[in-house]
From TrEMBL:
Species the sequence originates in: Apiospora kogelbergensis
Name of protein: Wax synthase domain-containing protein
Coiled coil: none
Lineage: Eukaryota, Fungi, Dikarya, Ascomycota, Pezizomycotina
Compartment(s) where it occurs, according to its Swiss-Prot or TrEMBL record: Membrane
Chief location of this protein within or outside the cell: membrane
Amino acid sequence: MLPGGDMLYAELLLFQVILTVTPILPHGQHNSFWLASFVILASLYLRILQSSAGSPSADWGLALAITPQLGKAFDFFVLHPTETRQLREHKSHQDQARSNGVASWAKKFLLSMEMIHTPRGVGWNWEIPYVCYVGTESKRSFLLSRTWRIVWYYVLLDALAPLVPTRASGPLAPLPQMSDGSQDPAYSYDQLRRSAATWALTTLLPAWAYAVSAYVHLWLVHTGPAALAVLLGLCAPADCPYVMGPVGAMASLRGLWGRTWHQAARRQMTAIADAIGRRLLGLRPGGRPSAYLKLALGFFLGGATHAVAGYMATKASKASLAVAAADDASGPVRNRWDILPLADPTGAMRFFGLQLVGVVLEDAVFALLLRFGVLREDWRRNHMANGRAGYGKDMQWWWSRRRGESSVRIEKVLGYAWVVFWLSLTLPPYVEGIRQTGVMDSKLAPISIWRSRSE
């Protein structure tokens, strides 16, 4: 039986307390103290991985929450303790100046929580260089814009729920083959076309429904509490940037993974990659080898984080199936999930590895197009320059915004098509792996607008 319940919650609470309190304790001036704190956190992390919150979806979310936090602790406490102290003292001085006195323990605790738990940097651009703050928003305009988008995204999430694949909906089919394997000349183009259409409806549509629902769900999970904090006066609008980037930035794979998708774990991933590149390999920061090392390690760590989530979710699935098998003597249900590899049951490492391959291919194509004069510039590098005021506003500044232009630039249209094509090839096997764990069996929207309670 998997340990859980009160013990799991106690370990989680202790993990969060150590993570948050360590930077503000008096002994925090000594690196050895911070290193010891990280060792304790790592031990708690390993214990938590062997526990279960009771369902695959809960274990999935738990692993995706604490794994980046352990990475952030490694960054703060082991790799950059001096910089962390300087950042803490800088923010502490700001708080003292505002309060005309010594910062209280409560303020120091809130500061530490801000440093540890904020996904994209709150109020200061230390974490993600591509976060653009909209400092001109008033409290009223902030609340109005977030409120209507919360409503719209919730309706969208609820509408997508029937399309998201579950264990009850059956497996996603693989890509249709060019022949039926029997060398039968009767296997015609029409048969292939029908197979492709069936695959698009039964595999591609559910896979994309899951991807869009994941984007919307993460946006809601962050923006709901952020809007409430601004409403109550706990945060200023400028302290709550968008957790997800604009959909319009996904005109390239680099734009998708570096702008559109959340950057919650970017800081710790790049910090680890920088440490390996500089300290172990002696690579020059900013050079091409260093840049591609950071890219490769970023996707590797992203894959490892999601592999851990799949590992925890699979344990919960096996436990629930074992109970079902004990209650049902009609069939060997308990063996159904033995086909899942223990280390990476969802195929996360394969999926994120393929994203790395896609980015490298994309870079190579851009290099060739620039070399032969087909493109005048690599617009992926500077597409943020003219979009700061509209960051987070969906596709606005990704349509042609230059003065005197009225049509969409063809290379960006082709870029969107490329991203959709690559994800359509690589996403379905990963979504199928997640589906098998039972993560998507839970309701996306607690209260359904489109479906009756009886459904």
